[in-house]
Amino acid sequence: MLKIENKGDSHYFFVVQSAQGNPLFESEPFENQEAVREAITAIKPRIKHPGSFERLTDHEGHFRFALKDPQGKTLGRSKPYGSEAGMENGIRNTQAGILDSSLG
Q: Where is this region: Disordered (predicted)?
């Protein structure tokens, strides 16, 4: 599930959650809801493209991914995963959440 959230500081984010409601991905802040919708609209056609996701490993050995827009700018990052397989599953669920959304 994808939703737009306002964190109370006049910044908007889009968040992708699992079917159980666990956060999978949170975007970087946007100035308004329209900017969030524009970013989602821009990424939807490319979400299945391999270059849309950057796979990362932090210094503690956790796996994360970053979602990139068509120009290569980072739109946001995932939560940490304990395994590479978990991260890949998170990527698939993030793709599905964005593609299935009615936003954008």
A: 70-104
